[in-house]
Backbone:
């Protein structure tokens, strides 16, 4: 499924993508949070939101939450879809690490044409998620009914990693750590301990690793 939209400046695409992903992570989309995620100043965000409103891509509610309009959602779906397809190609076909693929896909998402998008889908076998398990818009992804967060898995229970939310991709070094620990979608592990500070100790392929509360509260898993 190819999303067709008018051409917009890459900055508009990045803002709509960020707003989409913040909402996908279950966060209230306010300007301060957009500024934090994009690592730009709050005045810069305020100015861009005004431009996005003029373009008909976002609205601001009475509670100061930024929401995508129908046109904004179509644009966000397109950019997110192409970003996640690019990540899939860069990891599966070119062997890049998670962190490298995420960085490079941020460039690719603005230049992938519908023809190239279709070719990526065919070459990759119509994937439903990015390498981190996040849904590719338009792919027909279905969330497992028993999906829960890692920190809710009881000690001694096994789990399958389903998804590393976008929020974790912006924590320095965390993607590299999780990839090294084998906490990747499709991998099976066991919770071996839970500490008072919120750290969850897991064992994946015979190796123990500690997962801090911030990640443990966000990594989605299902029963193995």
Residues:
């Amino acid at each position: 499924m190819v999303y067709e939209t008018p051409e917009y400046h890459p900055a508009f695409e990045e803002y709509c993508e960020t707003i989409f992903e913040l909402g996908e992570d279950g966060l209230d989309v306010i300007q301060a949070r957009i500024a934090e995620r994009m690592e730009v100043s709050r005045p810069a965000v305020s100015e861009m939101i005004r431009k996005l409103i003029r373009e008909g891509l976002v609205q601001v509610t009475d509670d100061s939450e930024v929401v995508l309009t129908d046109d904004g959602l179509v644009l966000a779906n397109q950019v997110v879809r192409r970003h996640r397809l690019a990540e899939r190609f860069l990891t599966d076909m070119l062997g890049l690490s998670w962190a490298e693929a995420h960085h490079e896909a941020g460039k690719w998402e603005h230049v992938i044409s519908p023809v190239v998008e279709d070719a990526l889908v065919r070459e990759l076998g119509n994937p439903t998620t990015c390498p981190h398990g996040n849904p590719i818009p338009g792919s027909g992804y279905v969330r497992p009914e028993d999906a829960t967060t890692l920190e809710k898995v009881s000690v001694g229970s096994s789990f399958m990693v389903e998804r590393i939310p976008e929020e974790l991709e912006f924590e320095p070094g965390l993607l590299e750590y999780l990839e090294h620990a084998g906490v990747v979608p499709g991998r099976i592990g066991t919770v071996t301990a839970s500490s008072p500070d919120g750290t969850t100790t897991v064992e994946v392929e015979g190796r123990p690793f500690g997962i801090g509360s911030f990640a443990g509260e966000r990594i989605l898993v299902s029963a193995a």
